[in-house]
Amino acid sequence: MSKTEINEIDSLLVKANDFRLSKQERLKNTNVVYDLLNKREDSISIGYLFKIADRYYNIEEYDDFKRVSDKIYKLSSAKKDTVHIVKSLNNIADYYFYTLKNDSAYYYYTKLEKLYKDSGINEINPRVAHNKACILLYEKNYIQCEVNVIEILKEAIKKNDVRLVYDCYLILGMSSRGLKDYNTAINYYNKSLIQAEKLKDYPQYILLKAQPLNYIALVLQEQKKYKEALEYSQRALSLDDFEKSDVISYIYFTNTLAYSKFKTGDNSCLKTFVNCLKIGDSINNSHIQLTSKLHLSEYHAFKKDTLSALQYANSVLVDARQNKIFEDELKALELLAKIDPKNSTIYNERYITLSDSLQNVERATRNKFARIEFETDEITSEKKLIEAENRRISAQRRLILGFSLFLIIALVLLYIVKAQRTKNRELQYKQKQQQANFEIYQLMLDQHQKIEEGKQMEKQRISRELHDGVMGKLTAIRLNLFILNKKNDPETIARCMKQVDEIQNIEKEIRKIAHDLNQNLFADTSDFVLMVDNLVANIKEHSTVRFRVTADEAIDWTTVSSAVKIQVYRILQESLQNIGKYAKAENVSITMLKKDNAIVVSVTDDGVGFNTNQAKGGIGLKNMKERAAEIGATLKILSEKQQGTQIILTIPT
């Protein structure tokens, strides 16, 4: 809501509460504000809606007051705004109270009391209990009214709430009057007078003093102490010019005064009765009209003007019945029975019937109020039980949620720990693999070094053989044959022919050296095969399995990278380990063949075999496939139960 809108609404609300303006103008301003806020549901709007409700109440537009209060209650309930729920519910209860719908008012006030207690609001509005007591008083439930008011009075005295103390004494006086305990009633009214003296700062201070005086006058009239009653009425009217300041109070006080005058023989009362009725008609106040007509009927009956007396009494009978003011209807019937003796039996019977009916209604009303109290308590108890059950369910849900969260966290932690352990094992495995690969690589280096050392030794041996043997013999033959340059005789030639035979021997010796050299050249390309032979030899030391290793001489292992040879070696190692653990084989064949642009290494056994589909998840087989993939090779595993197993590794070159 913009500042401009707020300023406009504030201005309209001020005008709506300006009593210098006509009722229609104030109502129009209130309606405009309500239309502006009707579509809003924020907290600012709720605050303004309360002000609008107050304006409708001040203008006496009670139905609009109720409508706005219902809207506030609905909005507040949706937001679970306890403070505004209580205030709006108080407005609704007040509506029923001021429109004399006592059962509904009593229900809402009782509900409001329970809400105050259940919501934990510290300050309970004392007017709630006060208005309930007023309802009990109106319904003539005097005993319960006194019980309730005394409790309110104790709290009011404790909190020094002078105005509430004053109101409590007034109610106690009225209740005692209803019980016809007149002296007690007068005592309570006098106590309210004492409290009124403490309320001088109140705008209604004069009226607060005058009311107890008028009530005392009414009690004295019932005691037939008319002169004393006259004095109290005069005291009340002397406090202010009520005809100008408060016309309704003026009529009530004047009617009381005039009746006392009538009973003391002062005929000036007639003019007062007529004037009161005239004003009552002008403001359409049914209570003033009925009281004035009763007084006029009684006055004319006393003056033997039976026709006028009957006219006023019958008018009261009709109006009282129409407005459901049964107390005045009873007074009219009682008066008619005296004025019209011929029909007194009819009036008396109607009086008794109505009186009995009213007593039954009063009894039913008392029971109804008791039932409202009980049902409200029961509803509150059920609500508390439901709330307790909801709290239990909520606690149970929180417990389940907490346990579920704990379980989820525990499972997550367990998964993390397990995953970490798996990761650690994989890391350890990789480290072991790296270590094993390093050892294999070192073994290959050692093997290669030994082969190189063997080569060097063989070269040195051949060098010595050639130098010391062949070269020496050739030198000797050359020297022996050199003589042919000088002599060509047959004897010399015959001797030299022996040297030719010796050359043949040297040829054989050179051939032998060449053969040995060819064997060493083969050894240059068989260092990996030797490693495989050594692997098999190690297994043979603790196994009865018969091994056969076949290596294609066409494979040049020197052109194969160390990384490939390491992985091939590890695959062979894993294969042979699996055979030893599971195959129960008697014969194992390892072949290494050259096929086109690939080296094919196969391991075949005659063991028990296995179902390759069921064994796909084995760690050993998985590792072998991963190793094959690392070097770009393919690995096939062929096996059937009781048919042995063949592992084929194809390595591209």
TrEMBL record:
EC number: 2.7.13.3
MF (Gene Ontology): ATP binding; phosphorelay sensor kinase activity; protein dimerization activity
Transmembrane annotation, as ranges: 399-417
Reaction catalysed by this enzyme: ATP + protein L-histidine = ADP + protein N-phospho-L-histidine
InterPro entries: HATPase_C_sf, HATPase_dom, His_kinase_dom, Sensor_HK_TwoCompSys, Sig_transdc_His_kin_sub3_dim/P, TPR-like_helical_dom_sf, TPR_rpt
Keyword Phosphoprotein recorded: yes
Keyword Transmembrane helix assigned: yes
CDD domains hit by this protein: HATPase_UhpB-NarQ-NarX-like
PROSITE patterns: HIS_KIN, TPR
TPR repeat start and end residues: 210-243
Top enzyme category: transferase
Identification of the protein by name: histidine kinase
Organism, scientific name: Flavobacterium suncheonense GH29-5 = DSM 17707
Domain Histidine kinase: 465-653
Keywords, comma-separated and alphabetical: ATP-binding, Kinase, Membrane, Nucleotide-binding, Phosphoprotein, TPR repeat, Transferase, Transmembrane, Transmembrane helix, Two-component regulatory system
GO cellular component, one term: membrane
Top-rank lineage group of the source organism: Bacteria
